[in-house]
Amino acid sequence: MTRHPGTPAVVLRTALTTPLLSAFLVLAIAAMTLAGALVPPLIDQARTATVQHQLRDIPEIGRPLTAVQSWIVGMQRGGPGKTDVWSEPLSALQAQRDRQPEPLRSALGAPRAVGDFRAIELQGDRKTPRNAVQLIMDPGLEQRSRLVQGAYPRVTDPAEGIEIVLSEKSAAELDWKVGEVRDRQGLPVTLTGLVAPSGTDDLDWDMLVGSRAPTVQYTPMGDIILQTVGFMAPDEAGVLGDLLTQAATFAWIPLDVSRISAGDAATVSTQLRLFMANPVHVGSSGDFFDNGLQFSSPVADALDRGVTRGSALVAVVSVAAVGPLAVAAVVLALAGRQLALRRRRAAWLARARGASLVQLCVVLGGEALLLGILGAAIGLAAGAMLARGGPDALTMLVAGVLVLVPVCTVPFTVVADLRRTERRDGSAQRRRPLTRLVGEAVVVALAVAVAVILQSRGESLRVDPVLLAMPVLIGAVGTAAVLRLLPLLLDALLRAARRRTGLISLLGPARALRDAALRTAPALAAVIGLAVAVFAVSFAATVSDGIGRTARDATGADIAVSMPYVEEAQIAAARKIPGVAAVATLDADEIGQGASEGVTDRVRVYAVDRNAFARVQQGFDGALPMPASLAATSGGSVPVVASDQLLARFGDGLTVNGHPVRVVAHTAQRTPFGNTEKWVIVDRGNIDRIGVSSPVVTKLFAAVAQGNDPPAVSKELAARLGETATVTTADQLIAQSASDPASSALRVALMVSAAIVAVLLAVAVLQTLMLGSVARARLLALLRAVGYPRRRELPLVAWEVGPALVIALPVGVASGLAMSWLVIGALDLRGFTGGETAPALSLPPGWLAAAVLGFAAVTAVAILLATATAMRLRSAEAIRVADDEG
């Protein structure tokens, strides 16, 4: 008696008969796992880069933690002299720095502290430039400077005068010779030497603004004042006596922002805020004058902005990744089905020899599991090598999902075929319309429920299952709609074909209508693919429009100019520049006092020429409301335009500087005048009526005439106004925002997501057509036997997937629009745009049309490839393969 091999041996031997299909499954899972393994580290790099970008936007001298305290800590007015003034404060600051938790401690540098003798004009016996010299007592002066001429200052009796040194540039600008004495409100000040930076601790020089060279300030009358720093002996504070009332302690702690990564940014921000919330006491215990050094720094806010943009990036990339992952599951399911069809004959043989369905599922699923694990291992290993790190939990989860798809598909397909074959009558299993209807109703109900949750909870940056489920549910609802509409279309086409004589027009819809498997997969892939493409286009356009609106709000005109002081001659010169259509100025920018029903607070008061500013903003997107009534100069109250934040703070009955005001317009948008939230705008004719004391023109706004190039006009304007002018255009701000690593990473992620979906869609269509290649080839063989021309397979192939893809086109677009409206509306995109309000959804028709045409092109290429493959299968081979699989 012949001994037959066991069931596992039969199936495992069959596994060796299709090495190409097994290799495809392994490589597909490896490629998808590799992509999943590379995404997290790339996103982390982008998050760190955007945090660093936000920090680099802060000037270097703005990054250290700084604090100012009245008095020199440890000194007593009228007390005995002290020769070691700074050791105790510096030691206390260093100890406070050492007590900070990680990672903040490693980012903090050595603390610095100096004595600050307030800036006052020093006058000489001869006419000298107007100046304001700030006298500094720096304990580290001799270590970070070199003596160029003369000598370092000594500790002297203030009754006889004090000694200072200046930088070479400061002395030259002030026209001050070594040995010359000048007067500081009765206090003689002698210049004993000149110093220059030694090249070490350059940040210390930068922190003391004016120490290297004088800075220029302007009075309201346009006069120039040179502000500079002179260095006293560090221990001069010990003998100042009654002059201590004019002194203060200025301290700073450097912050090495390069040490802060995206993972630490939120923690460092929290630690910084805690550090800055509590004053640091650096004097002797019980010192009455030691109020503590209250440190501050804009770094915490910059870190929060970087974290916000990074969180928004993670949220958007996560949503965008759902589409490729879903289509990848479709491709792997189709690959599993192809593998199952090749294992069907072996499974029938094993079943005939007594193998149970459970045994078959274990063996067939085990084969798919081994292939999947091999592919996942390859992908994870390659990802670990490229990313130089092990996979995280999310990557392992994605790899597990990819492996499970064919593991479930292969046994399910084989078992379903076996059960259908084992039916006594051999007929196909009857459909259960009620079951299908219930399933579709559940999907629709879930989609509606998730949509309601997203709409009700407001904007967020959290990545949660609700947000990630929305794209999948939208794709599922779209697929259900396609499968409901497709039979109606095919029935209509079949009825129309019966009235004609064409053979293919009759066979095509009949075959597509009969085999649902040939249309389900491409419909799902097409709906999800189109939805992802539409979402990518609308999201990119929404962010781009939001950045543009924020930039226009910040500039207030085609060109904005900021200067310390804008002279009338410069304004007149700006109006004469070719290409400048109109010019307006900010005539006053002062802090006022707002009051209403017992509530008082600071209010920023801006004054402009209403008519001139309205001309500058005419036709400008983002124009501030400037009603004609703003220019009214009569009546009991002053007409103003107010911010919504100010109205929310004060309500009705508002007064500014004690003067009643009348709000003629209000807005929530930012002004191009400053970043404050509570402000009012008045016409320049009402400056006196609202208590503005010292109006100074510091900003200029210009509108570019139609047909002229704003960058060219801005360059001419900058050249005409001089070096003190900072010229900004909306295009410059847009380019600056677009250069942020988070924005760049987002654009790349959306493009890559759309490209991956397009490739996977083509593969899904190709696989679907390959699944029907045997039946199609057998039909073509029969058709050729009755005289049907060779190389005419394209129409028949197109009928198999064409109708489903045609219906998937509008459904996919609708799904993408719904996904854009729901998902984008649920994300807080202000981190990307930098605006005060969320950007409005943008749906550019041109780019949407390009996405649809790209989908059509991908599908056409896939159909052509499948047709070429079908043409290579000869009739005799088709009949033989059909016999083998039948």
UniProtKB/TrEMBL annotation:
Q: Which residues cross the membrane?
A: 312-336, 357-387, 393-416, 437-454, 466-490, 521-541, 748-775, 796-827, 847-870
Query: Which key words tag this protein in UniProt?
Result: Cell membrane, Membrane, Transmembrane, Transmembrane helix
- One GO term of the cellular component aspect? plasma membrane
Topology of the protein relative to the lipid bilayer: Multi-pass membrane protein
Subcellular location as annotated = Cell membrane
The UniProt similarity line reads: Belongs to the ABC-4 integral membrane protein family.
The lineage is: Bacteria, Bacillati, Actinomycetota, Actinomycetes, Micrococcales
Extract the InterPro entries matched here: ABC3_permease_C, Macrolide_Exporter_MacB
Query: Which Pfam families does UniProt cross-reference here?
Result: FtsX
Q: In this protein, which residues make up the domain named ABC3 transporter permease C-terminal?
A: 752-872
Q: Among its keywords, does the record have ATP-binding?
A: no
Q: What is this protein called?
A: FtsX-like permease family protein
Work out whether the entry's keyword set contains Magnesium: no
